[in-house]
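User: Sequence in, structure out. Go.
Assistant: Echoing your sequence, followed by the structure tokens.
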Amino acid sequence: MTRAAAIATIVICSAAGVCPSAADVPEAVATDAPTLQEQFQRAYASSKSLADKGRYAEAVPFAKTALELGEKVFGEADASTAKLTLNYGTLLEAAHRPIEAVSILDSAVKRFERLYGESAAELIEPLMTRASAWAWSDPISARYDFDRAIKIARDEAPEDHLLEAQLNDRAGDALLAARAAEAGPYLEKNYRLVQTQLGDLDERTGDAAGDLARYEDGMHRTREAIRLMNLAIGTWSGAKTPDAARLERGHAYMVDLCERVGDHESAITHAQAIGALRAADASSGARDAVPLFRVNPNYPRSAQMNGEEGWVQIEFTIDANGAVKDPKVIDHEGDAFIQTALAAFRRWRYAPKYVDGQPVDSPGRRVVLRFNLED
């Protein structure tokens, strides 16, 4: 699951209250130059506006300026300055600058510790954000921060199991994005907690199962990933108002997983499920030609040795099962590429077209497979 919205929430200063809003910013004392206060307000407003739009890289320099000015306006020991430090570090992390983010977030954590103590609930967000930045380079340090934040949450609110689940989910997602094996325990804990607290029919339980499936797939435990993703799809399908886009992504992932283990019948089932979903969505036509599963063709050794590049254009039919039917080469450049292109393309899988509630053949499709040598 994407966590971009969590960054925006921090910057917006809503429920979490991490950053000071314009209304929360106290007036500068009489000895401060009015222009300093105005410069701070402009920098802070710019960083907030850009972050609200997801333009994190553009927001970073304004957040830095807001922090530098905030230190002068409020003083380095003020809570507003601590929140501005966290804000700057959060935006660096969101802008994929983790090394710089860790450095700034170190300062944020220290400032929050001096203000509230080392076990206060206010430490949860700085620790979680620093851990997310650490995940890309030092998953061990990330786990230390995640575990510390989760322990604080448990100590502060021992009965709030959904808060604990949310923090485990964030930890697992951050480590999973960084392809760290350490993601597993957090994703498993999140799944157990939401399943216990919300039951198997809640969409959040499905999301947790889906996240855990992606982890298992990354650990090359494909059949366990299939089991979990099936659970996720079942949960999403049972929602009062099923999210068609979420279901389509889940079925598409299942097509890929099933084809990888040679379970073609299950792949057909999921491909047809996508076709049925798209039949109810008038805007889905552009997605019909996007393969759900593809096999890259082998580069002919003779062509590779001779430095040859080329392409093959194929006309084909997507049959009622989503399989490639009657592929024919209609144009090409380089005879050596024809057979390897056809051999790979026959294994591709699409979502079939639906007419009157039934999957049907869809002829006249075309695709170009290109063979390019890397520099």
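User: And one key feature?
Assistant: The chain has a mean pLDDT of 89.
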